[in-house]
């Protein structure tokens, strides 16, 4: 409904906003202040910008921005257009609550509304893109109810969604 | 036609011989029976026998008169051949007969004399008329003859044998006498009939006769009419015939004419034909000669050809014989080959049948194996499906885990950064 010019300018401002956000997030990890970050920090930067890519997706994104001869660093020059595009297209958005719930229900083979700690460990370290020991412990500390030693995943999801917002 | 005419003539068809049958009952009811039986019966006498004495007498007198007349008629004959009959007649009769002869001769002489004198005249009664004296003389003679005859008759009556003998000579009787006797017997019959019928019957008879005559008249009329018709028919037929005759005559003349013309025509044609024939003959002779010549020539040619052909035939025969020999050889070879082939074929056939049996056996085995194979296949399919299902489930699980992991990593980073920023914000009081 808005005139084209106005819409264009609006888009320009949105892009500028997004690019600023990206640059800010990038600079947090640019320890040497030379518009480069360690390649291992890229996952953290992308996730900090509100995306939830899987490890394989992250790998694809990295392949886009890496130098022809890997140096172990990623330049902002390359990262900025790729990330702008990802955010403009709203790719790798966190999955909605109901789908997350359904994912837990798939793992809950007995359909009893909760997973045991062992089950969670088993699934998270053996299936999908297995967690490292460290990651696993982080998750367990947040998700497991220490009294029952189970994961009431419905409550856990609600908690995470509330935190995110 | 005959029956038609008969009905027209109204002929009474009943035959007269039926009268003998019906004559039995005549004495009682003559009239009735006569009417009943036949119209002709009416004409017969009412009864067959005379009833009264008078009538019987009348008839017997008449009979006697006839008998006498018969005798008298023969007297002249007897007197001529008197000697022949002398044995039968007897002396008395002979004497009287001789006397009679004499008397009759005298009378004849007298009559001839009278005739010669031209005095002979005949009156109504047949008596001779002459001079008074002569007449008397004649009458005397007549008397004598009459009495002599009476005498003779009386003698004959007394001698039935003689009378029978004389009557046997009847063939010599004169014709006039014969007629007279016949007349007498007719008269006797007529009289008898008259005496046998009553007046009433007579009247009926008359009536019947009238009817008959009337009918006859009608019949004659019809006949006349028919005859007239016939005459006209004949006339027309004659006319027709005449016409036909004329036509025939015409045709005959025409035929004659035709014959003549045709004869001349034939002659002419014959002449022409002869001429033509002669011409043709000449030409044909010439042709014949020519053809003969040709024939000679052709025959010569033929002979040459025959000789040539014989030579070639001989050559061909030789060739044929050779070829036949070859063919025979070929056939023999062929037969041998075929025999070999046959035996070979039989061997192969035996092998084939054996193999066929084996094949059947193998087929049986194959069927069993196939069944097993299909079972195994089924099992494999089932297990494959199971595996696929498990894989699918696993994939779903992996995806679910990945989702959770990705979400959690994002959540973890953001929550960590948030807590870091809070710490920083507290420390640096940077923009929020």
Automatic annotation (TrEMBL), chain A:
Residues 17-52, 95-130 form the EF-hand domain. One of its GO terms (molecular function) is calcium ion binding. It comes from the Eukaryota. GO terms for cellular component: sperm principal piece. Pfam families: EF-hand_7. Keywords: Repeat. This is EF-hand calcium binding domain 2. It comes from Gopherus evgoodei (Goodes thornscrub tortoise). The keyword Repeat applies. SUPFAM superfamilies: EF-hand.
Automatic annotation (TrEMBL), chain B:
GO terms for cellular component: ciliary basal body. It comes from the Eukaryota. Residues 12-38 are annotated as: Disordered. Component of the nexin-dynein regulatory complex (N-DRC). Interacts with CFAP52. Component of the nexin-dynein regulatory complex (N-DRC), a key regulator of ciliary/flagellar motility which maintains the alignment and integrity of the distal axoneme and regulates microtubule sliding in motile axonemes. Residues 13-31 have a biased composition (Polar residues). InterPro entries: DRC10, IQ_motif_EF-hand-BS. Residues 345-400 form a coiled coil. Keywords: Cell projection, Cilium, Coiled coil, Cytoplasm, Cytoskeleton, Flagellum. CDD domains: IQCD. Belongs to the DRC10 family. This is Dynein regulatory complex protein 10.
């Amino acid at each position: 409904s808005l005139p084209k010019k106005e819409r264009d300018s609006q888009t320009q401002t949105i892009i500028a906003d997004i690019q600023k956000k990206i640059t800010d997030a990038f600079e947090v990890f640019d320890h040497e202040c030379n518009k480069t970050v360690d390649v291992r920090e890229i996952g953290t930067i992308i996730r900090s910008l509100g995306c939830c890519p899987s490890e394989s997706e992250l790998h694809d994104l990295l392949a886009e921005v890496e130098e022809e001869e890997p140096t172990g660093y990623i330049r902002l020059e390359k990262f900025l257009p790729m990330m702008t595009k990802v955010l403009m297209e709203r790719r790798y958005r966190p999955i909605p609550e109901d789908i997350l719930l359904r994912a837990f229900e798939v793992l809950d083979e007995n359909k009893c509304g909760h997973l045991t700690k062992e089950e969670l460990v088993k699934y998270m370290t053996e299936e999908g893109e297995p967690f490292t020991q460290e990651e696993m412990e982080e998750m367990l500390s947040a998700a497991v109810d220490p009294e029952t030693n189970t994961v009431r995943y419905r409550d856990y999801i609600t908690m995470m969604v509330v935190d995110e917002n | 036609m005959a029956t038609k005419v008969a009905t027209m003539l109204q002929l009474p068809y009943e035959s007269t011989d039926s009268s003998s049958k019906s004559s039995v009952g005549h004495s009682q009811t003559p009239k009735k029976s006569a009417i009943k039986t036949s119209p002709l019966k009416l004409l017969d006498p009412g009864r067959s026998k005379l009833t009264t004495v008078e009538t019987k007498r009348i008839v017997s007198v008449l009979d006697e008169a006839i008998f006498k007349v018969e005798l008298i008629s023969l007297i002249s004959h007897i007197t001529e051949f008197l000697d022949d009959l002398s044995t039968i007649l007897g002396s008395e009769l002979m004497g009287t007969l001789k006397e009679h002869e004499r008397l009759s001769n005298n009378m004849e002489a007298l009559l001839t004399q009278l005739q010669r004198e031209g005095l002979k005249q005949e009156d109504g009664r047949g008596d001779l008329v002459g001079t008074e004296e002569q007449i008397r003389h004649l009458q005397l003679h007549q008397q004598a003859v009459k009495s002599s005859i009476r005498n003779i008759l009386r003698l004959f009556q007394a001698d039935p044998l003689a009378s029978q003998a004389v009557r046997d000579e009847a063939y010599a009787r004169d014709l006039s006498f014969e007629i007279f006797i016949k007349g007498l017997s007719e008269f006797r019959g007529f009289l008898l009939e008259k005496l046998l019928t009553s007046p009433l019957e007579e009247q009926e008879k008359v009536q019947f006769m009238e009817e008959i005559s009337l009918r006859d008249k009608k019949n004659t009329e019809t006949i006349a009419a028919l005859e007239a018709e016939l005459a006209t028919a004949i006339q027309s037929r004659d006319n027709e015939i005449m016409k036909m005759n004329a036509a025939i005559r015409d045709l005959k003349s025409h035929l004659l004419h035709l014959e003549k013309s045709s004869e001349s025509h034939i002659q002419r044609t014959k002449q022409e034909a002869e001429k033509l024939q002669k011409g043709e003959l000449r030409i044909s002779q010439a042709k014949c000669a020519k053809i003969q010549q040709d024939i000679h020539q052709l025959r010569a040619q033929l002979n040459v050809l025959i000789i040539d052909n014989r030579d070639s035939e001989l050559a061909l025969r030789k060739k044929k014989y050779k070829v036949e020999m070859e063919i025979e050889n070929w056939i023999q070879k062929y037969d041998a080959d075929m025999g070999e082939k046959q035996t070979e074929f039989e061997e192969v056939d035996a092998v084939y049948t054996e193999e066929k049996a084996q094949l059947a056996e193998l087929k049986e085995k194959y069927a069993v194996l196939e069944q097993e194979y299909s079972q195994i296949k089924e099992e494999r399919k089932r297990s494959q499906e199971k595996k696929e299902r498990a894989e699918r489930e696993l994939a779903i699980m992996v995806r679910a885990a990945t989702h959770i992991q990705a979400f959690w990593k994002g959540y973890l980073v953001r929550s960590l950064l948030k807590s870091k920023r809070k710490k920083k914000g507290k420390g640096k009081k940077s923009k929020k």
